Amino acid sequence: MSPPHGSERDDEVPGPRGGPAHTHESEHARDPRSGVLRAAVFGAPDGLVSNLALVMGVAGGSGDASVVVLAGVAGLLAGAFSMAAGEYISMQTQREMLERELEVERKHIEDHPEAEQRHLAELLAENGIDEEDASRVAAQAHERTDRALEFHAQLELGIQPSSLGAPGAAALSSFGAFALGAAVPLLPWLVTRDALLATMLVSGLALLWVGAAATRFTQRSARYGAVRQLLVGALSAAVTFGVGSLISRL
Ligand SMILES: [Zn+2]
């Protein structure tokens, strides 16, 4: 069975505003909020697949619903903490790397103000500002080190010193998204002791939904994303269920 290929979504016609719009989007990629959004979009499918596989594995090996619930809750919390920690450390590390680059640039500006001002004027000219204006803007920017640093950071490093990402918010959002996804395969077991079928059903629907939702950020069609996510999740669950059943027979 092969997932449907290609995009159903009409390709957006690149109009005269296509270029500028793209530049704008790549700026948004550095927006601290995009870290939060990314964490949410990728955290939920992770929680769903991970806890579905865990719950199915335990269910395959034990008929005891309370054991399944215990494992499911532990899996939800362990996964959410791990995701949040990973997101926090990686964003914080990236932030520290950018801060170091900014420090190096600041030192350049302080140690060689005239050369850096000339360099900024050149960079502005390369970006289409005519030379006279470029030297005037560069001179104004270099009246204050902080302002000069903003210009140099944007034009040389492509970063904004004032928005280097929000590790705490991204970690929180990762935690919440993973927990939300992980709760789906767990919930039926809180309602009934015989929840195997219900778990597969609600998790299947949720997999389709998160898979489709993630394609909003890609060129793929929603159907492709949904089917791909369902296949990956179902395969993981089938494997752990099989292993659980095998272990219970040992
Ligand atoms: Zn510079």
Query: Can you summarize the main beta sheet?
Result: none
Could you name the ranges where pLDDT drops below 50 across 5 or more consecutive residues? 1-30
Radius of gyration: 25 Å
- The best one-word shape is elongated
Structure overview:
- The chain has 250 residues and is an all-alpha fold.
- The protein has one domain.
- Helices cover 79% and strands 0% of the residues.
- The chain is built from nine helices and no strands.
- It has helices spanning 18-28, 32-61, 65-111, 113-126, 131-141, 145-157, 167-191, 196-214, 222-249.
- α2 (32-61) runs parallel beside α7 (167-191).
- It starts with 17 loop residues before the first helix and ends with a helix.
- The model is unreliable at 1-30 (pLDDT under 50).
- Bound molecules: zinc ion.
- The site of zinc ion has 6 residues, from α3, α4 and α6.
- Zinc ion is lined by residues 105, 108, 116, 119, 152, 156.
